[in-house]
Write a structure and sequence with these properties.
The protein contains 14 helices and five strands. Helix 8 crosses helix 13. Helices cover 58% and strands 9% of the residues. It is globular and about 70 Å long. It has a five-stranded parallel beta sheet, with helices on both faces. Strand 4 (210-216), helix 12 and strand 5 (228-232) form a beta-alpha-beta unit. It is α/β, with parallel strands linked by helices. It has two domains: 1-78, Winged helix-like DNA-binding domain superfamily/Winged helix DNA-binding domain (Arc Repressor Mutant, subunit A, Orthogonal Bundle), CATH 1.10.10; 121-279, Rossmann fold. The termini are far apart.
Length: 286
């Protein structure tokens, strides 16, 4: 399945007992949902019609009818490029090299496509505007997200944006102390629950600095603290030594932000990129 069911899967840890039963039923029986009334769904999940409506609203819809409509759209557009049930595919001990290649590529493609469908365009435009007008941009992330932060810094400095990336918690707080309301901060955390990231976000927010968060869909402290939230859709599976698809989609978001900011000053961007390329030309073998 596409967008809707992935969004529900990513929020499973945020649901109450009743909400979790509803979520599990939707994930396990997507085709049946289209044929059942709200009363029938309530009976199947041992809940109530009001509970179904509240669940639909929690995942971002007006009510049950809009969820059915979104699910129908997803089912029509679904395609079997992953495992037989359309879910993300984990690696198994018996997989051949070909299987591993197919599964990893399919998972990455799936993550990018699903994020593209659910990305909040207004939030994306606001993020571009904030980065464009910011005097300085500080980017924060740990682990694999720290690598994404470094990639974002590398891209921004090539077009003349004053930016820094920090993966060490002490450096993060030290650097954040000099931020002003004229600057911007970008926090990258797939889980949205990293303790040190949340602590630094609170500190930056107290300074009056606008915050962009790149995190997974659903509610989290990171999403709550941010002024602009860019939600990625990439359920992680058991084997995730390199954070796998979540890292890839975070990098894609960074690429989109870079293109958005660069496009606002196209002529100047071209000059900056040429100077950047020329500066390292002599470091290459001919």
């Amino acid at each position: 399945m596409t967008g809707l069911l992935t969004r529900i899967r990513e929020q499973l840890d945020d649901f109450s007992g009743v909400e979790r039963r509803i979520a599990d039923y939707l994930i396990s029986n997507p085709h049946d949902i289209l044929k059942l009334s709200i009363i029938q769904i309530a009976e199947q999940t041992n809940s109530s019609s009001a509970g179904i409506v509240r669940f639909c609203q929690k995942i971002g819809f007006d009510g049950y009818k809009s969820v059915k409509s979104a699910l129908a759209h997803d089912l029509i557009q679904s395609f079997q490029t992953l495992s037989d049930d359309g879910s993300y595919s984990d690696i198994s001990p018996s997989d051949s090299a070909r299987n591993i290649i197919d599964k990893v590529f399919s998972n990455q493609i799936r993550a990018i496509e699903e994020t593209g469908k659910m990305l909040d365009i207004a939030a994306f435009e606001d993020a571009i505007a904030l980065l464009d007008r910011a005097h300085r941009i500080d980017i924060f992330g740990f682990g694999a997200s720290g690598l994404v932060a470094q990639d974002m810094q590398q891209k921004l400095i090539r077009i003349g944006k004053y930016s820094f990336a920090y993966a060490d918690v002490h450096l993060q707080f030290t650097a954040a102390s000099s931020l002003t309301p004229d600057d911007a901060a970008v926090f990258i955390s797939y889980s949205g629950k990293t303790r040190d990231i949340i602590s630094c976000m609170r500190y930056v927010k107290e300074l009056g600095v606008k915050i962009i968060a790149i995190t997974k869909s659903g509610s989290s402290r990171v999403a709550t603290l941010a002024d602009i939230v860019l939600r990625v859709c990439s359920p992680e599976i058991a084997v995730r030594s390199g954070a796998m698809s979540s890292r890839i989609i975070q990098l894609a978001i960074v690429d989109m932000l870079f293109m958005g900011v660069a496009g606002k000053h196209y002529e100047q961007t071209q000059k900056s990129l040429r100077r950047s390329s020329d500066s390292v030309r002599n470091m290459r073998y001919l």
